[in-house]
Write a structure and sequence with these properties.
mainly alpha; Short-chain type dehydrogenase/reductase; about 55 residues; elongated
Length: about 55
Amino acid sequence: MAAKTIVNGVAKGQARVVVGLEAKAVDVLARIMGSSYQRLVAAGVAKFFPWAK
């Protein structure tokens, strides 16, 4: 499924091909917040994966 999405995106000449709901959410967040989205993502990772500091 992911490979098909990527191949279709490349065939259409899309500059950005995003696969999966999580990737789409992060992509939208990055577009809205700019580079400051990284702090939000880091806080979320720290909350759910405390060992990943």
